[in-house]
Structures are given as C-alpha cells and as structure tokens.
Write a structure and sequence with these properties.
The protein has 456 residues and is of the alpha/beta class. The protein has 16 helices and 20 strands. Strand 10, helix 9 and strand 11 form a beta-alpha-beta unit.
C-alpha cells in the first residue's frame, strides 16, 4: 500500500475466500486485523485466531467499524448496510479486496470484465501468455483471490485478473496495464440499483489508465463501445467478429487476423477453436488481442487456443442420453448470457431456465427461442416469471428439483435434440452457487443415463 499497514487497525468484512486471503495477508504484514462476518459460525475461526486475527461473528458491531483505520470488503458484501454507513460518517476509508491486493502487487495487471465470458477469456489469456514463456498468475473472480498472489508477485509477473462489478465498485487506485471490456448488459440488478450503477462499476476498470496502457473493447457490443467512449482514456484496441476494422482483431477468411499499423497477421484458424458458440469465439478473439499486446507470438496463441476445450459450467457438453444431448451452461446467470447460449444451437432445443431472478427481462429470450424451442423447463423461485415471460409462445414445464428438470427435459426434447441448462438466474434459491448447480445437473444426467442403460 502507499503507507505501511503494520500496527493499523483493519477490519476485513466477509469470511469467504477473498476475505480470508485479505485478512491473512494483512496479519502477515503486522496489521491489527479483525475479520467480521454476519454468520454465527465460521469453521476457520480457530485457524485465524492462531494467526493473530480476531473474529467477530453475527451482527456487525458498529464500534469495531467506527474505530478502524481501514475497512476491506469481500466482493460479496453489500455496500449499503448500517455498520458501513456509520464507518463512513466516521471517515473510515473503505476499499475492496482487489483494491487492497493491487496496492501490494509488484507486477503488471491485466483486468478482464464484462457481463459474460470473463472466466473463459481470463483462462485463455493466462494460457496464451504461459505458452509464450511469460511469468503469469491468474486470479480474482475466477478462483484464487488476488490477495493470495501478493507474496508471489515479482516485477516480471503478469497478473491476469477476472474482475466483477462487485470487485470494481470498491476500487480507487486499481490500475490495469491492459483492461478488457467484453460486453455489457443488465445483470446483478438485485444488488445494483439500476443498469447505470452497474455500468458505472464496470467503467472503473478504466479509471486510472493512461497513455502507457491499453483498453481492449468488443466492437460488436454497442453498450461496451458507449461505455468505453465515455470512460476509457487509454489507447483502445478493438476486436470484432462482425465488423471490418482497420486496427484490431477481426474474423476474415476463417482466421482471427490482427490488423496493426497497416500490417495484417494471421493469428488463429477458427477451425482449431474447440468451443461451442459464437460468443465463445468472441472470447477467444478478446484473449488473442490481449496476448498480442502483452507480447505473445502467434504460435503460442494458436497452441493455447487449440488445446483449450472450455471451462466447467460454460457450454460444457455433458452426455448423450437416449439420443438427446445434455449441455451444462450453469454460468449463464443472467438473461444476456442465457440468450447467447441458446443462440449457440440451431434448433431442437429444450432450455432449463430459472433460479433466483436478478433482474432484466426474460422476454428478451423470445427471439432466440423462436424457431429453436417448443418447450422450456422452469425451475426455482423464478418459475412464475418464466411462465409469464414465455408461456404464450411455448410450453413451460415446471420442475421442483434438478432431477425433475433433467427428466422433463428428456421427455420434451425432440429426436436428436439438446437439453441446455441456461438458467438466466442466480442459483442461491436451490444451490450454494452456480458450480454446485452445474454439478448437480451433471450428476442427475448421469443417473438418468444409468437408469436407461448408459449414455455416451
């Protein structure tokens, strides 16, 4: 940080992975650390105590927050709550875990954000740079907290960081060398007051960049283009699958092609990309754009992309059961990502939609479903919302569990069809997170295959 943390009273709020990593990092540097969590039980409390970290469980103690020199929030902690309001009135600085870590890193940062595709793009950038022989650490919203990478950070480390709106909204000095905005559409409106507030959080990825940095933008996404036009001050590098660009990464003659300063270089043949869906090809284009800016040669990019078969829960092929293909896109937690998943298939499709609705309009799925689907399976709290939005154009079959949904999907799918888990909703009504939802889906598909004599 710009000032030493040793001896300072620092409250870390939230005891999940990011909060734990931040608390441990600060304690190791001599801070007087309290970890506060509204849960009444935290299994790691004893281990934290052994490291000199106080743990306060249950309702937040206002006095603890007001007496702090600094408060560090985990990304899952809402900004609007009484204890934080009291701290603000006491003029206690409040930052997020990513902001904290970024102040302590030695290497440069590549920050990747957007409504959809962050994890795929982040993973691909990391693999492309590793294939080029660069020292890389992948962290952030994708897995390891950025705070956990601080002690391993060196001047030549490139930190490839997936950043969500929750992480970005608590940044102030966060300064990526390369920022990436993949796309922008309504999401997390259960936490952000409106789309404007959500977009403003995303725009913070550009806030501290200047002439020596890069902003990589999706030229096919009007909302991303508009946001970058208002906020990005760094030189911009575009990528596009649909437009003809004089500068940037484009799709031409079956290749991803880089155009730079009047020169054109073939980077990657599309036929070697092993991912389902045009939106995932856009993520590959974004990753290739970043990798080239970071110095990766085309052969390294081609090798990494050709060996990448996708992430778990992101248009992940599961199994063929009784001639019906099952595909897991549990990461499609908002309307736009579900739409893109649906559009990845030509037809004969039965989507499983529902969960805890985060906002947006499920009617936006109607154009994608038209001609592709005659039925959807509705799950979770959003079942009435699904029926209201789609029930007049196709059959809506309600299921009380994932086991029922999988079986209903098989029954509704036409011969040679696909059952696609693309919920367009959060998972928290039925599952711990999207990963548990996806794994339960895959387990139920495997059970169904066993009952019917096996799958492939």
């Amino acid at each position: 940080m710009s000032e030493p943390v040793s001896g300072r009273r620092i409250v870390v709020v939230g005891g999940a992975r990011s909060g734990m990593a931040a608390a441990q990092l600060l304690a190791s540097r001599g801070a007087d650390v309290t970890l506060a969590d509204v849960r009444v039980d935290l299994p790691e409390a004893g281990r934290l105590g052994d490291q000199g970290i106080r743990v306060e469980l249950g309702p937040h103690e206002a006095r603890t927050f007001e007496r702090a020199d600094l408060i560090v929030l985990s990304p899952g902690v809402p900004l609007r709550q009484p204890a934080l309001d009291r701290a603000r009135r006491a003029r206690v600085p409040i930052i997020g875990e990513v902001e904290l870590a970024s102040r302590l890193l030695q290497g440069r940062i590549i920050a990747i954000t957007g409504t959809k595709g962050k994890s795929t793009t982040t993973t691909l950038v990391g693999r492309m740079l590793e294939a080029a022989g660069l020292r890389v650490a992948v962290a952030g919203n994708i897995g390891a907290p950025l705070s956990a990478e601080v002690d391993r950070s060196t001047a030549d480390t490139i930190h490839v960081v997936e950043v969500s709106s929750f992480q970005l909204e608590t940044t102030s000095t966060f300064h990526p060398w390369i920022s990436v905005l993949l796309n922008l559409s309504a999401d997390h409106l259960d936490r952000h007051a409106n789309l404007h507030e959500y977009a403003a959080a995303k725009a913070r990825v550009f806030a501290n960049q200047g002439e020596g940095d890069w902003a990589v933008i999706n030229a096919d996404d009007p909302a991303a283009m508009t946001l970058a036009g208002k906020h990005a001050r760094a030189p911009r590098r575009w990528f596009s699958l649909d437009k003809v660009l004089d500068e940037g990464m484009v799709l031409a003659d079956g290749w991803l092609v880089e155009r730079d300063g009047g020169e054109e270089s073939r980077i990657l043949p599309v036929e070697e990309v092993r991912l389902i869906g045009r939106h995932l090809l856009a993520d590959v284009a974004a990753a290739a754009t970043v990798a080239r800016l970071a110095g990766a040669p085309a052969p390294a990019i081609r090798s990494a992309a050709g060996g990448f078969t996708g992430l778990e829960h992101a248009l992940e092929p599961v199994m063929l059961v009784a001639g019906i293909r099952f595909v897991n896109d549990s990461k499609a937690t908002n309307v736009e990502s579900a739409r893109r998943a649906i559009e990845s298939f030509e037809g004969r499709l039965v989507p499983i939609i529902g969960g805890r609705f985060k906002g947006g309009d499920l009617r936006d799925l109607r154009p994608a479903l038209a001609g592709r689907s005659t039925a959807v399976i509705a799950i979770g709290e959003a079942r009435p919302v699904v029926r209201q939005a789609l029930g007049d154009m196709l059959a809506v079959v309600e299921a009380n569990s994932m086991a029922e949904a999988v079986r209903a999907g098989l029954a509704a799918a036409p011969p040679g069809g696909t059952v696609l888990l693309a919920p367009a909703c959060a998972s928290f009504d039925m599952f711990r997170d999207y990963a548990e939802r996806g794994r339960v889906f895959k387990r139920e598909v495997a059970k169904l295959a066993e009952e019917l004599g096996g799958g492939s």
